[in-house]
Structures are given as C-alpha cells and as structure tokens.
Amino acid sequence: MNSTTKSKPVHIAQQHRDTMEKATESSREAFETIGAATNEAANVMKTSCSTALQGMQDYNSKVVEFTQANAKSYVEFVQRLAGVKSPSEFIEGSNEHVHHQLTTMTEQAKQLTALAQQMFLSTTEPLKTSFAKATLAPR
After folding, report:
1. Structural domain count of the chain
2. Measured in Å, how far apart are the chain's first and last C-alpha atoms?
3. Cα–Cα distance between 52 and 66 in angstroms, integer?
4. Which of 20, 42, 71, 138 has the fewest Cβ atoms surrounding its Cβ within 10 A?
5. CB atoms near residue 125 (< 10 Å)
6. pTM higher than 0.90 for the full model?
7. 135 — pLDDT class (breaks 50, 70, 90)
8. Helix (H/G/I), strand (E/B), else coil: 4
9. At 64, is the secondary structure helix, strand, or coil?
C-alpha cells in the first residue's frame, strides 16, 4: 500500500470529525437560543401576572371604596328620611337621593372601566411586544 491509500481513511475520519463538531456546535447554539427564549418568555409571563395581580388589587380597593361611600350615602338618606314631616318632603328627599346615586354610580362605573382598561393594557402590552419580537426574530 502506498501513502495515498493510508491517508484517505485519515482524511475521511477528519472530515467526519469536522462535520460532527459543526453539528455539535449548531446544536449547542440552538439549545442556548431556546434556553434564552424560554427564560425571556418566563420573565414576560411573570411580569404580566404581577401586573395583573396589582391591577386586580387596585380594582378591588376601588370597589371597596365605592361600596363604603354608597353605604354611607344610604345611611345619610335613611337618617334624612327619619326626619321628614310630610309625604312631599319624603318624595323630594327620595328623588334627590336617587339623582345623587345615579350620578355617583355613573362616575364610579367610568372609573372602574378606566381602571379595568388600564389593567388590561398594562398586562397585555409585554405579551404583545414579546410576541412581536419573537415573530420578527431571525431563524
């Protein structure tokens, strides 16, 4: 056998080794990319959930605040009714209370709606941004 015959198996083995190293490197890079994307997705979800929880707490606090204000208004109304002297005074007091409560409840509903919208937007914005970033990322 001459030296060219012996070098062919060595050359083929080297090519095989090079191919395996490239495949291993590609796999390692893919796993790193997947790991980074997974960590980023977990962080985005954590942030969104924390934001949603804070938003729900703010919303619930506002509902409690409104409930207390409405209960106080009702107690004041009942106390005022206790002092009426005529049916017309009763009707007038009742109408005032109904008008006041409708105005108050309309404003409360606006505030709760705005709070819910703010919570929704602040919770979904990180998800939307992350999704847009992921779909635009090179593959």
Report:
1. 1
2. 49
3. 21
4. 138
5. 13
6. no
7. low
8. helix
9. helix
